[in-house]
Design brief:
Rossmann fold, five-stranded parallel beta sheet, 37% helix
């Protein structure tokens, strides 16, 4: 946190309209004319350990490259490992977010989804947000955190089949039965309309009327929209009907969808890993998820699988039991075995002795027969006139699979039979 010193003005001039105002108004005006000297030394030192670590690794790289000169040889792989470590440090994921609204105290929201700052900035404009993301991506949690950051109440409604779930109604005794939506609309707050795409389109039309105007007709009276009313709608689809994964979704009216700013809310893999606190299990879950997505299998493996599974494993429950209860959840045996067999990394091996030069990096998705690099090797040629001579040949290396590059050799000498690359295969054959 920054500290500072306020310098008062020598001869503050007060406008005529303030001379007869209450003392607090005068004080507020004078404070606005003050100069502030900010001491950022504490803030600047907050990341000192991280900066020292980055500087130390930078120094290692420079020193190694000086000693090696142009002939890096097999140590080039170590250099790239250090550079990768440095890159991860600079990413600083997952996001640890602290927010401050107006003149209030700072609120530490802790570790958050990388898109949360964007969501907060959109809400600050008072626009309505449509969060589109898969199950378990943290849409509801994000809405709660936005309410905490804005220091306003949080209100929630799930999928609805009738407009009365939003507007409320008058019971047989003439009493008004209010709703979460009305409380937020009338008194201020953040309203989350969860699973809006699972609601009846006719019911959503009433919601559309409230968003398109600055007032809403409720059973007892017309209510003006509160200036601190914020709205988020969360969904698994874009409101255009069911898809292969979310078959219970309805098509929403285009006029309703037009009231929203759409924000993709995908899985935050770094946050998932951090919350699970079990890298081995989380890596396994994420591999299975990638394969399911590539195969277009109708099955959900959300970050909850990483977090719930890690908790079960930490409590001593056997791995095979955790997989059945967390990952497979009734998936047919043939599909399950296909996934298990295909997530084993496939290897591409060299057919020559030579120097391998990669064209792509780890983490890239390639297609079958796509070029991933080349090998330079010496070839011995026998000729009747020149005798034996050697020439340098270049052979392109292509991928035998479609999938994600998990590991690939850097420029270095290799022998026939050495592993060039490991690929997480997504081939359907």
């Amino acid at each position: 946190m920054s500290r500072g010193k306020i310098k008062k003005p020598k001869n503050p001039e007060l406008p005529d309209n303030l001379t007869k105002k209450p003392l607090e108004d005068v004080i507020y005006h004078v404070i606005q004319t003050c100069d502030v000297e900010v001491d950022d030394s504490e803030w600047q030192g907050s990341d000192k350990n991280l900066e020292d670590e980055i500087t130390s690794i930078d120094g290692k790289i420079i020193e190694i490259e000086k000693r090696l000169g142009d002939n890096k040889g097999d140590l080039s792989e170590q250099i790239n490992d250090i550079k990768s470590e440095l890159k991860n440090l600079k990413k600083r994921q997952p996001l640890d977010l602290i927010v401050k609204v107006d003149h209030s105290k700072k609120t530490d929201l802790g570790k958050q989804h990388y898109q949360l700052p964007t969501l907060l900035r959109i809400l600050a404009t008072k626009l309505n947000v449509y969060l589109i993301g898969p199950a378990g991506s943290g849409k509801t949690h994000a809405a709660i955190q936005c309410a905490n950051a804005l220091k306003i109440p949080f209100y929630f409604t799930g999928a609805i089949a009738s407009e009365f779930k939003l507007t409320g109604f008058m019971d047989a005794q003439g009493r008004i039965v209010s709703t979460e939506f009305r409380k937020a609309y009338e008194t201020g707050g953040l309203f989350l309309f969860d699973e809006i795409d699972a609601s009846y389109p006719q019911a959503v039309l009433a919601f559309n009327a409230a968003l398109s105007n600055d007032y809403m007709d409720f059973p007892d009276k017309r209510v003006e929209r509160h200036r601190n009313f914020y709205c988020i709608a969360a969904a698994n689809t874009f409101g255009q009907g069911a898809d292969r994964q979310y078959i219970g979704r309805n098509q929403l009216d285009a006029a309703s969808l037009d009231r929203f700013v759409f924000l993709d809310w995908n899985y935050d893999l770094n946050l998932e890993r951090d919350l699970a606190s079990n890298d081995d299990w989380c890596n396994y879950v994420q591999k299975i998820r990638r394969f399911i997505y590539a195969y277009k299998i109708r099955h959900v493996v959300s970050p909850r699988a990483s977090m719930f599974g890690a908790r079960l494993l930490a409590n001593g429950i056997p791995r095979d039991v955790v997989e059945i209860t967390i990952l497979w959840k009734g998936l047919d045996e043939a599909t399950k075995q296909k996934i298990i067999q295909n997530i084993i990394p496939q290897q591409i091996k060299s057919e020559y002795d030579g120097v391998f030069i990669p064209d792509i990096k780890t983490g890239v998705t390639v297609k079958r027969n796509e070029v991933i690099g080349k090998i330079e090797f010496e070839k011995t040629i026998h000729t009747p006139y020149e005798g034996i001579r050697k020439s340098t040949e270049v052979k392109q290396i292509t991928s035998s699979f479609t999938g994600l590059i998990l590991k690939i050799s850097n420029r270095k000498k290799i022998k026939k039979g050495d592993i060039i690359a490991e690929i997480e295969s997504y081939d359907t054959q």
